[in-house]
Amino acid sequence: MNLADSTVVVVGSGFGGLSTACYLADAGADVTVLEKNEQLGGRASRLEEDGFRFDMGPSWYLMPDVFERFFGHFDRTPSDYYRLERLDPHYRIFFKDGDGRGSENGDGSENGTEGVDFVDILPELEKNKELFESFEPGAGEALQRYLDQSERNYGVGMEHFVYTDRSRFRDYVSMDVARNARGLNLLGSMQDHVEQYFDDPRLQQIMQYTLVFLGGSPKNTPAIYNLMSHVDFNLGVYYPENGLGGVVDGIVELAEELGVEFRTDYEVTDITGHEGDFFVHSADERIAADLVVSDADYPHTEQELLPPESRQYDADYWESRTYAPSAFLLYLGVEGDVEPLAHHTLVLPEDWNEHFDRIFDTPSWPDDPAYYLCVPSETDDSVAPEGHSNLFALVPIAPGLPDGPAIRENFREKLLDDIEANTGVSLRDRIVFEESFSVSEFADRYNSTKGTALGLAHTLLQTGPMRPGHRSPTVDGLYFTGSYTTPGIGVPMCLISGQHTADAMVEDH
Questions:
Q1: I need a surface site. Which of 175, 179, 224, 347 has the fewest CB within 10 A?
Q2: How far from 219 is each of 176, 215, 243, 351, 359, CA to CA, in Å?
Q3: What pLDDT band is residue 297 in, cutting at 50, 70 and 90?
């Protein structure tokens, strides 16, 4: 079968599905994307109500080089579809052990840590080094050494282990791997790695917060992911025009230019057949295809959409996996401003080990949560009515937790109290719009196993060839893309996953 003469159905329109569709259409395939929900983008959905517009899922635009490479494959640039603004500060961190609310040292105006409630991570590396030095002597130069290692890991890791798909063990048996893996931190944990550079627990937290994007904790994420600090400090944090939803719009526009057809409100119930003779079923119709790609959650595809004889993994396999956190989210429209919150704000407890333990070891709702506050109205006036702020709060929680109305209301009150106590921002009496989203919505809206917000965590035993593959070994012509596959979790990784899936299909056909 020649791919250029094939009809392909892609199930799901997350970034992995959108990326795969673009590459396949560019290769000449006739591609149709089926999306369960009313809008495209998968978890990158948008909530629009009463003049407020929220990115419901991912909200950080990181690794701009990945987006440039993706659009560049089609002789285009991101700027053909959306504008970017580099954030300054990249993000703000409130430490709960502070007692001097309102002071800052991110801009150099007050560079001691005594009584400081928050710090800003800035585009200027020298200022960030000054900040680190103010926490402990020698930490400024330690940051430089850490970032030098991070940049090396990023360069080697991206080129030889991310853009080069090594999703099978045999892909690692080569001199190229041996040569390029030399010097990389592959096996230790992020906690062990960061402790080699910094003693102050707050500095360790700054270097590890990006693990939330990978769905892991400092204790279970391999040290190779220190490359995320190069992303954070050196490549920068950006805001795309119209948020991450604007990026979805841009990729959809590109896909349509390439000839991709989209159908929303199409919930797939079954996938039957094999290469050259597939049928993708909904409740009241079926679509024929030569090849099928699933960007739906991998376990859902295997356990719910495929007949038992077509599954490569059983229920026990999926039950034994370590899943990335779910989340408790509050989308809030608020009267007035919410200073001193920045566009991206983190609020971190003095010891966040207990919070991670309650995600991965003893699943339960956290007593002293670490959380993220996103205020896009600090950058974009279009996301809220005049005189109002757009804010959402995200607390990582264990997947599979019960989240009934009483539990959620109790945690909402605790979270609003925590925000006021640790940032000085009182929200409760100014909320004019509110909606929550948590474990049950992730499961219902996205068919997400245990309501995970991200998929499989990046533990050592779930990285590289130990993640599920792009090809189904049991059904010829069935492929997978998205965060469950290599290279893994996150918008940039899902874009690259789409390329790997399409490359596998080109290789096979």
A1: 175
A2: 29, 12, 32, 14, 12
A3: very high
479-501, pLDDT tens digit by residue? 999 999 999 999 999 999 999 99
- Tell me: the pLDDT tens digits for 355-394? 889 999 999 999 999 999 999 999 999 999 999 999 999 9
Q: In what order do the strands lie in the sheet with 286-289?
A: 270-274, 277-281, 286-289
Q: What is the pLDDT of residue 458?
A: 83
pTM of the model: 0.92
Q: How many CB atoms lie within 10 A of CB 410?
A: 11
**List of residues 6+ apart from 197 with CB closer than 8 A:** 142, 143, 145, 146, 207
Give the residue from 128, 95, 131 showing the smallest Cα distance to 111: 131
Domains of the chain and CATH, by start: 3-46+56-83+241-318+462-508 (3.50.50.60), 127-232 (no CATH), 326-446 (3.30.519)
Rounded CA separation 168/172 (Å): 8
